[in-house]
Amino acid sequence: MKLKGWKELTPGAVVTEPGSSKKFKTGSWRAFKPKWIEENCIQCLFCWIYCPDMAVKVKDGKRGEFDYDYCKGCGICALECPGKKGNKAIVMEEEGK
Amino acid sequence: MPKIVAVTGNEAVAEALRQVDPDVCAAYPITPQTDIMQRFSSFASNCKVKTEMILVESEHSAMSACVGASAAGGRVITATSSQGLALMWEILWIASGDRLPIVMPLVNRALSAPINIHGDHSDGMGARDCGWIQLWSENAQESYDNTIQAFRIAEHMDIRLPAMVCLDGFIISHSINRMEYLEDEKVKNFVGDFKQLNPLLNIEKPVSYGPLILTDYYMEYRKAHEHVMSKVPGVVMQVADEFEKMTGRKYGLFETYRLEDAEVGIVVLNSAAGTTKDVIDDFRAKGIKAGLLKPRLYRPFPYAQVGEALKHLKAVCVLDRADAFGGSFGPLFMDIASSLYIQDKKPLMFNRIYGLGGRDYMPDQAELVLNELAETVKTGKVKSVKEYIGVRE
Ligand code: SF4
Ligand code: SF4
Q1: Which of A9, B138, B319, B322 has the fewest CB atoms within 10 Å, i.e. is most exposed?
Q2: Which residues, judged by CB distance below 6 Å to any ligand atom, belong to the binding site of ligand 1?
Q3: B166 pairs with which residues across the strands?
């Protein structure tokens, strides 16, 4: 996306386009990446509820993949995930490893 | 017919606010401003204005409530002094950065510690670079006139910036002046209806205020702010011309007094200008060509115009009613020095700090400065660039 010059900005940084935060891909901030281990998943959807960035996708009531465009790697999902028999269904891995 | 009255500066400002009848006011009491908001809240309680008064627990909250109300789409006011302004400081930047045209009388008072309730300019000077417009006022009439004009300047569609109207605590705020009130209708027509720009309460067109702006855009927003500030002097003059047509009272970016043919000049803000003008007359009678420049639009500072107005002088003394503790000079001196820096020919300059914590500025102090200016011209040398005057050794 071509960045705007200072003459093209809305006064006071007011955002006039609803839903435009979708264009702001915050995934690049991530230092740790959550990894989903499907076989340990009990489909409780805690991750979906707790994720502050709506970065856990759900389709037809089923847990889907992470949306890495927006996941900031905060690790909340991994902390909350109960997993199966003590085995987490989400683990955090260092980016670039 | 305009009404001639004898009122205090605070009374005059409260009257201007009543006549404008803003939508929202959030304020917290602090001496010497309290009197403005006390009067204004009785106007609200007695249905003389339709303003929604918001009770808050501090000035930080007062300015925060103003930011919310202004973003929501209202015409918004508050008022403060000294520590109150200091407590607002964080939110002052948000009001200006969000480009919210809040109007705030600032009744200038010294900052603590030591605690002091009297008039000096340390409060306003501390907030001079926070992106607000600052109009400074010599007396009750100017405080009233500046308050009315501040709405037009702040709310101008090319500007949309908050504005402070500064007046000296106690000296002006609590002393009775002779002045003229305009008729309510005239003030209402002059300020006109408040025009909204991206109001939060317009659910047809949803907007967000205060987004996170990082390295990719922050600098562009700052450049845009600097640019809009540069448009303020033009709008101030346009509004002043209209105001003059209505009232006959002429305002500019600054006032000059016997300056055109002067050899020496004093630059001073607010109430001390009155005393200085009197003493200048005495010196003129003695054959010393003295003059004065009193800034009115202090932020943004009209550097080019001020420099032009002062460059022909042989010597200039800048009187500061606040010090800037940087081991350097008073804030006004630094601005005047910058104005003259860009001129090829410039006067000899010195800085005197006076009147801190409300200490009276007496004619003998103006005499002292004028004598020193005359001496400087004679010797061609500045004895000392910065000194306090009216202080005990
Ligand atoms: S790491 Fe944080 S942002 Fe990413 S999916 Fe988990 S909860 Fe959401
Ligand atoms: S919190 Fe863990 S177990 Fe629950 S749905 Fe998410 S990944 Fe599966």
Answers
A1: A9
A2: A 34, 51, 53, 55-56, 66, 71-77
A3: B106, B136
Distance CA A72, CA A34 (A): 9
Whether this model's ipTM surpasses 0.85 comes out as yes
Nearest Cα to B383, choosing from B348, B339, B338, B342? B348
Confidence of residue B104 (pLDDT cuts 50, 70, 90): very high
Q: How far apart are CA B311 and CA A73, in angstroms?
A: 61
| CATH number of A86's domain | 3.30.70
Q: Give the pTM.
A: 0.93
Cβ of A12 and B209 within 8 Å? yes
pLDDT tens readout for residues B320-360: 999 999 878 999 999 999 999 999 999 999 999 999 999 99
Q: What is the DSSP letter of B111?
A: P
In Å, what is the CA distance from B147 to each residue of B27, B110, B217? 16, 22, 34
Within 10 angstroms of residue B391's Cβ, the number of other Cβ atoms is 10
The CATH number that applies at residue B226 is 3.40.50.970
pLDDT in tens, B148-203: 999 999 999 999 999 999 999 999 999 999 999 999 999 999 999 999 999 999 99
Element (H, E) at B84: helix B82-97
In which domain, by residue range, is B190 found? 3-247
Q: Is residue B352 part of a domain?
A: yes
Among A53, A79, A92, which is best to mutate for testing ligand 1, by the most ligand atoms less than 8 A from CB? A53
Domain ranges, residue A60: 38-97
Q: How many structural domains are present in chain B? A: 2
Pairing of strands B52-55, B24-27: parallel
Query: Based on the structure, what is the number of domains in chain A?
Result: 1
Across B218-347, where does the E strand assignment appear?
254-257, 264-267, 290-295, 297-299, 315-320
Crossing angle (nearest 10°) for helices B9-20 and B34-45: 40
- B316 dihedral zone (left: phi>0; alpha: psi -120 to 50; beta): beta
**Collapsed DSSP state (helix, strand, coil) of residue B55:** strand
Residue B371 belongs to some domain of the structure: yes
Q: How many CA atoms lie within 13 A of B301 on its CB side?
A: 20
